[in-house]
Amino acid sequence: MNNGPALLLEFWQLWYESLVRIPFTLWYILPPFLIVVAWRVWLNFSQARYLKNLEWDLLEIKIPRELLKSPQAMEVVTNIFAQGNDGTFVDRWFKGYVRFWFSLEIASFGGEVHFYVRTPKKFRNAVESQLYSQYPDSEIFEVPDYTLAVPYGTKDSDWTLWAGTFKLGKEDFYPIKTYIDYGLDKDPKEELKVDPITPVIELFGSIGAGEQLWMQILVMDTKKRGIQGSLFRREEWKDAAKKELDKLQKRDQKLKEGDVPNPGQFTLTPQEKFVADAIARSLTKQGFDCGYRVVYLAKEDLFNPGMIMGLLGTIKQYNSPHLNSFKLDQKVGFDYPWQDLTGRRVKRQRFEMLDAFRKRSYFYAPYQAKPFVLTSEELATIYHYPGQVATTPNLVRIESKRGEPPANLPI
To answer: Which residues cross the membrane (predicted)?
Structure first.
């Protein structure tokens, strides 16, 4: 009992000393922390203000019934998406300027399949010109935003939805299976074509009244410094690709005539050579930061859970066992019931997924996510306009050919 006052006094002394030390520590830690937080808040505010005033156009592309173009035509079109200029240092950090991005979309309304491109208004004429240059018989119209026509989330709405995002299974520099791997660059006869986008079109055309399927691929020119203000930083994909290629090439020790094989030397296996060739081909292509989303909407009494598995199956044809693949990233729903006992978290997920799709938000707030890199070849593989090999009856096409693109389009 006699030690009580002494212990109490020791406690108060330690507490007082800690109080004395804290301000000196915070003097070094707190100001830099507050500066970073304040700068981050300002950057988000300035970017949000800039994006709010940005005007967009949604273009629908109607393709002719007799389309004989390979996906290489779309690869040429993707050059217009390489809009990497986001202004000076003052523009980026003080005025909120961002790199422009585009959205390539496929949507089905009760089985009627449509193709869209969403573009900043200032690039509309350039996008139209690029599309007409490769698809001169197509028709392009500005249309209202179809995503706003579904009354999901409104009072007394009987609609529900599932949504998900995809990501790459390996590093960005490993390419997916592209149209060149399917031999479409050789322009085979129509009856011999194996077009990897056909399963997507067939699935989208298979739904009935009261159902909708949406697919969205967001595209932005990739830059070495990364996305302005992004939380996600990574090594520039071409630098990483060159490192991997150098590593593989160093293993390729070719013997000259008369040389004795050295057990310490190795040559590339056929699989490694295949990978090296694919990476080398990717290095010759334009790269884009990308995001990939799908949404399935239906009236509650018509909602088909099997359609979710169908959506997940539409990415299988792009997967290569030796290269790269798509896999599910985020999704609506939880694996275990105790993760969302009240159902509120699922409702919030549905709202946010739909809102992100409507806003086409991926690279910047309010729905910022980690992008992956696709080359122009890969991008043209997962989004292009199919030829006659796609026999979906509800694929919207125009019956007759156009004479010429509009003469008043700027060059």
So the answer is: 20-43
